[in-house]
Amino acid sequence: MKRFNYGFLIVIGILLLFFTIYVVISNQKYTALEKQNQKLKQKVISIENSPSGMSLDDFYLHAQKTKAIKEIFPSDVFFQATSNYIGQNSYQVDIYLKGEPNMQFDAADLVLITDNLQVKKITPGSTFPKYPRKVNKNEQIAVTGTASLNSNVLTLGKPNKLFVSLTIEKKDPEKKGELIMNAVETKVYLMGNYVLDDQKSFGKIKL
What are the DSSP calls for the chain, one per residue? Predict the structure, then answer.
């Protein structure tokens, strides 16, 4: 009577075990790859739906703004100004960007025309994290505040804070001086939309 070859069965069992392990691992790798492909497709779709010609930084900034806008209740904002005499024919003019507490904005341009006034100093406020433009030329003042993207965190401008402070001196102490807001060039934007209320903003300041 022949003896049954148990060694053969052991070899077959080991082979089946390795084959099962191989199939399981392959399926796991395939599932992980499919998930990566789906995420990549979603990113591609998002990029295709975003404004054309954007760099990676621009795309990220656009995505951050889109997220931020969902948390903002849009409302009009306006510039408000105060003036104080500080002696020696000089004044300090503080200009604020006012609005609802939950309002935010991504950029603002304030353009002022001077009459019988000389602006001695421009001091940016805290409305925006960045002030890339501060121009004092040909009896015109231009100040620009913008949002910033730092360490993947987008910081927008916030209302009810000082936008800019100006130290001003009269050219002729015997005459009145005026600081006039250029309503055409003064702008405030949120996601590219104009949100400045010209009627509420100050028109001019007499010194």
Answer: -PPP-HHHHHHHHHHHHHHHHHHHHHHHHHHHHHHHHHHHHHHHHHHHHSPTT--HHHHHHHHHHHHHHTT-----BEEEEEEEEEETTEEEEEEEEE--TT--BSEEEEEEEEESEEEEEEEE-SSSSEEEEEEEETTEEEEEEE-EEETTEEE-B-SSEEEEEEEEEESSTTS--EEEE-TTT-EEEETTEE-B-TTTS--EEE-
* 78-206 CATH, one of 2.30.30.240, 3.20.20.70, 3.40.50.300, 2.60.40.2430: 2.60.40.2430
pTM: 0.68
pLDDT per residue over 169-187, tens digit each? 999 999 999 999 999 999 9
